[in-house]
Amino acid sequence: MDKIYRVNMSSLQCSVEPVPTPWAGLGGRALTSAIVAKEVPPTCHALGENNKLVFAPGMLSGTTAVNSGRLSAGAKSPLTGTIKESNAGGTAAQVLARLGVKALIIEGIPKGDGWYGLHVNSDGVTIVEETELIGKGNFAVIEALEKRLGKTGVLTIGPAGEMKMLAANISVRDIDGKLRSHGRGGLGAVMGSKRIKFIALDGEGTTAVSLADSAKFTQAARTFAQAIMNHPGTGQGLPTYGTAEMVNIVNAAGGLPTRNFLHGQYHDNEKISGETLRETIIERGGNPSHGCQSGCVIKCSQVFVDKKGKYVTSGLEYETIEILGANAMIGDLDVIAEADHLMDDIGIDSIETSVAIGVAMDGGVLPFGDGQGVLRLLREDLRAGTPLGRTIGSGAGNVGKLYGVTRVPVVKNQAIPAYDPRAIKGIGITYATSTMGADHTAGYAVATNLMGVGGGVVDPLKKDGQVELSRHLQIATVMLDSLGLCLFIGFPSADDPTCVPAIVDMLNARFGLELTPEWFGGLGITTLKTERAFNQAAGFTSEHDRLPEFFREPLAPSGAVWDFTGDEIDQFWNF
Amino acid sequence: MDKIYRVNMSSLQCSVEPVPTPWAGLGGRALTSAIVAKEVPPTCHALGENNKLVFAPGMLSGTTAVNSGRLSAGAKSPLTGTIKESNAGGTAAQVLARLGVKALIIEGIPKGDGWYGLHVNSDGVTIVEETELIGKGNFAVIEALEKRLGKTGVLTIGPAGEMKMLAANISVRDIDGKLRSHGRGGLGAVMGSKRIKFIALDGEGTTAVSLADSAKFTQAARTFAQAIMNHPGTGQGLPTYGTAEMVNIVNAAGGLPTRNFLHGQYHDNEKISGETLRETIIERGGNPSHGCQSGCVIKCSQVFVDKKGKYVTSGLEYETIEILGANAMIGDLDVIAEADHLMDDIGIDSIETSVAIGVAMDGGVLPFGDGQGVLRLLREDLRAGTPLGRTIGSGAGNVGKLYGVTRVPVVKNQAIPAYDPRAIKGIGITYATSTMGADHTAGYAVATNLMGVGGGVVDPLKKDGQVELSRHLQIATVMLDSLGLCLFIGFPSADDPTCVPAIVDMLNARFGLELTPEWFGGLGITTLKTERAFNQAAGFTSEHDRLPEFFREPLAPSGAVWDFTGDEIDQFWNF
């Protein structure tokens, strides 16, 4: 029987609750947003006792469906002040799903200065005081817990989360004992505010989740996997080059943020391209194509090794590569990979932090291109929480405020990732309107603007069709985020007519339902409106659905400007 | 003939313009807010080229009316994101008024890295490159300009303004060659963003402003001065103890913020009281009663000297004394006076900075009560702009964000001054609803809540009548801020029936008008609504008219909580 685990850190008590009817059919983002919207006062302090941290596996997590193991984390974000859902791969979603835990809700704040670990198993949750691992980086936590507890699922925060840095993330143990991250929005600070260093998830004794119609599920799951493998994006591009394939695509489109969003092309793009990344990894004996969760058939991740073949990092994404590589002008994959490793270990969002570094460079804190300076900043300042480290760790918006920088690429105080919205206007609409602050994953219009996904190309430099595109994608993305599916399922979903019906069939076969594809549209719309209502009650208006003023300046070399009016952007919400 | 001086820092050109009809009858805050609302895009970056910095003398400035020499500065605030008016005493308003300058509007931003000084005289404005004074503190600037130019009026920014710190202020030379400040809202950062180090105001060749009816003016001015001197507040309390008279009054009421707003009474209140301040100054041969502008009859300022009789600071206000003394628990007037001097010299708002220090203490940056640590922080970090200095200099809200503190006393990101709104609820309504962010001077309900000003006392601990009180005071305060009158004129205005008619008579006699007292009410209402409309267009909603969540916790020893609902607060705007 599905249940909800609730942990009250004020009273240090745990309970197991039945799933209320309105939440019974939900999972992932649809569920975390429903819970946060119902139980968290929108105007509360995000690091105070009234915020709650909610984890929910996707509706298909725990099944044999490929790429279905993403875990959603939700709360009020201390970075943006909005509602937040951030999802990650790794192993935790599948364990929670097999335990029958629809959601783990953590509320309250303990009185004293102690730290705690949560132990989740089929009996419920146990809160245990923790001392040994406090102050430790994420890799050390995962390693120590493996020794202590065996290969359980782990959610953990690093020093950044302990220090409640606004860009702190929550990391998830992956299948290799490394990690993946709930990166955006500072959810690691929320976990730190509740004084929880880690959550160990013990799936001992559980089996695969039950299926209402096993034969139907197997058939649909096969069709689904085939659709992913047949698509050129998920079957060829991503497995070959990882997300770093975007470096040359976005550079060619003139939308590659360079020198803190001053230019749209980077002269050293080849040094950081997906092609170079792949060659480097192969040459050194790393792994160029690697999955973040069991059952992944895309394998857009990789294992990056140094010149001696020693492990440096995995899950080195386009966004991190681009923002450090071109935007901070450090055209050096070794430095970028090392920085990625450090950010993972410290437990800080690599997108927010990298954009913050670009703003800091613009503010004169260190020179553009100073890769060793960035590594020193991460090692010495971020990890220790020096005033400079806390400044960077509080995100790009705050760095801009502290250093009087006017070119600050944020929406709702969350950093704009590695696509300049002047040259790829569809993603600009997503940045502006997303309920989460600037977030490319909320509605990845780049695929349609630049890669022809979804059939008819929407011209990246023109306004026509962008609002409708972003709206369609944001609604559809809620489906993926709620099912526990990886974002890239959006590619075959858009292009292969067998894909969405197979997803619907899997869900129906899992739960014995008779849902239609239209049901997902409704779920997307409901969830977006729920999230927006939370934000409005927290004080957000349409004036916050705007890009920063500097995007009105022309972007070299195309000369493109961000030319949407407020009224045009606000059409997004006409549904 | 009255005129407007306009300076464009992008083109480095200056012009003299006639006063448009809608602005002809305005001055001070009514005029700066009208200009900012008309000319500044509400969503612009406050440190970008689209913001404008506007100075306007009060409508009575330049006359012989006592206490009429306050200058208003207006802009979009980089600290709050709202419209901002901040006024100061000193000598500048009177020079500008005698020059016939209704407003000085500074717009644009220069291309390069150069710094400039503006020279204002009867011919207009000249922009001159400046190198010698860059990096210098405010006292050195004023001294150097006296040598260079003689005793002109001076507006200047210190290192904080040059570094565009969000709490940077603009200082005004006072009659003793010391300074007063446009303290709140970071207008010094706006001046710094325009790369203007100082503005020298040369009144050479000007005489007193013309009067339409000299005899009537003289008679009214006499009545006005008499009303001020007859009132126990402005005639006795303030001249004797300065604003520090409030220490014991507010402590007795249990609303004296202590240990970052944790308690409402301070055990060492006598160490920092107005009585102790006065005794200390007299004992050491300082001046316990001193005016900030020529023609001041209240003289609530003082000259604080050290044990050897050497000048330390003047204009040492209750708010600074209280926030450093009780809220940061540094019960030592010598340390507080030295800190005040340093903040004046660095050019940073002593309220915002002192509250930020309290939050930093709560965040573990330095211990409560560490006076020497505070002085070191100001001398070494603030002045040099180290990362820690920039953190403190960016205000209490940002310190809270960087150090994960939940007890952060700000409204619209501006620090709440030295009155706890739980125990003095009227001032809480002003904090919540002021168009400027938390600001006690926007509607000083403390006087009615605790001192009986305005007749019938409104119980500080009850909700009854507080919304109406704050509304009445905020409307009336616009009058004072627009006339160039000191805030304390509010005391005789409320209690002496001869005072407001005398003000109206002075204004009518100055300009040949036939205004009524009701006209001022209309001006107050129009100005508040103009300011609010700007804020709404910048994205502010009623959800921003709220006090921080922690004020729902009981305040020791009274146990008072902030218990206004949102709907009750929103009644403020029903006019």
Automatic annotation (TrEMBL), chains A, B:
Keyword 4Fe-4S: yes
InterPro entries: Ald_Fedxn_OxRdtase_dom2 (IPR013984), Ald_Fedxn_OxRdtase_dom3 (IPR013985), Ald_Fedxn_OxRdtase_N (IPR013983), Ald_Fedxn_OxRdtase_N_sf (IPR036503), OxRdtase_Ald_Fedxn_C (IPR001203), Tungsten_al_ferr_oxy-like_C (IPR036021), W-dependent_AOR (IPR051919)
Keywords noted in UniProt: 4Fe-4S, Iron, Iron-sulfur, Metal-binding, Oxidoreductase
Aldehyde ferredoxin oxidoreductase N-terminal domain residues: 1-205
SUPFAM superfamilies assigned to the protein according to its UniProt record, in alphabetical order: Aldehyde ferredoxin oxidoreductase, C-terminal domains (SSF48310), Aldehyde ferredoxin oxidoreductase, N-terminal domain (SSF56228)
Pfam family membership, one: AFOR_C
Cofactor: tungstopterin; [4Fe-4S] cluster
Keyword flag Oxidoreductase: yes
Similarity field: Belongs to the AOR/FOR family.
Protein name: Aldehyde ferredoxin oxidoreductase
